[in-house]
Structure to design on (77 residues):
């Protein structure tokens, strides 16, 4: 998730018209929520303390659904 945080910071410094926000909406929201991967036990997946096994995250699913509605695209999972 470090690359997502770096990308997030980079996009905040750029002209919003220089990239397609649809491509980064979910990743940016994860960074804003502090979901930065295994170190925070939450990123695209959830992690249990001491266990690096990625687990499905209902939070991420919800963010993806919200983003797809926001941009009018069909979510295919």
């Amino acid at each position: 998730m470090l690359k997502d945080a770096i990308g997030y910071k980079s996009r905040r410094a750029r002209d919003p018209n220089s990239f397609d926000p649809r491509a980064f909406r979910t990743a940016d929201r994860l960074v804003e929520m502090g979901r930065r991967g295994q170190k925070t036990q939450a990123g695209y997946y959830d992690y249990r303390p001491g266990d690096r096994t990625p687990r499905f995250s209902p939070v991420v699913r919800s963010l993806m659904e919200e983003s797809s509605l926001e941009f009018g695209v069909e979510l295919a999972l």
User: Anything to note?
Assistant: The chain has a mean pLDDT of 87. The CA atoms of residues 27 and 77 lie 17 Å apart.
